[in-house]
């Protein structure tokens, strides 16, 4: 049951994040589109396009949510391998979804997205590293005090 709940949560997060990003782009460009115009125009029916896009967001959320399991794997002994594996498990579905949903109008757009996503990934990794390091320090202090 816990796995099913996680799957549902990951999928809902994917849908939520995808729609919030759509909304942000709508605000930035001054007009809301339910998806990239080139993607939407490739369908005869707007509802079908949005439904499929929503399913892609759900799958993207699921895959990216499950990517976190790599931190619990046997690879956990080598933090570099874990982070590189996690990075590619995050980026590959993102690039594939972006390609399908026509987020990239050119190679430049793809490269900019990769750079932006990589910077965000690295920043999150740094924050997470210092957070874990701080937690370990606190645990060590408590262990020392209990002796």
TrEMBL record:
- Would I find Cytoplasm among this entry's keywords? no
Record key words, sorted: Membrane, Transmembrane, Transmembrane helix
Q: Which Pfam families match?
A: DUF3021
Question: Where are the membrane-spanning stretches?
Answer: 7-29, 49-67, 79-101, 107-130
Q: Does the keyword Membrane apply?
A: yes
Alphabetical list of InterPro entries matching this protein: DUF3021
Q: Any idea what this protein is called?
A: DUF3021 domain-containing protein
Q: What is the lineage of its organism?
A: Bacteria, Bacillati, Bacillota, Bacilli, Bacillales
């Amino acid at each position: 049951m816990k796995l099913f709940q996680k799957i549902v949560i990951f999928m809902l997060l994917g849908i939520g994040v995808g729609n919030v990003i759509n909304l942000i782009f709508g605000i930035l460009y001054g007009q809301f589109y339910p998806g990239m115009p080139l993607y939407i125009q490739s369908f005869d029916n707007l509802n079908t396009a949005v439904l499929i896009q929503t399913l892609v967001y759900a799958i993207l959320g699921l895959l990216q949510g499950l990517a976190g399991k790599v931190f619990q794997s046997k690879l956990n002994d080598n933090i570099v391998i874990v982070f590189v594996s996690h990075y590619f498990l995050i980026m590959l579905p993102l690039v594939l979804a972006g390609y399908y949903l026509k987020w990239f109008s050119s190679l430049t757009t793809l490269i900019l997205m990769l750079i932006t996503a990589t910077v965000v990934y690295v920043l999150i990794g740094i924050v997470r590293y210092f957070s874990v390091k701080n937690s370990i320090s606190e645990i060590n202090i408590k262990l020392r005090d209990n002796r």
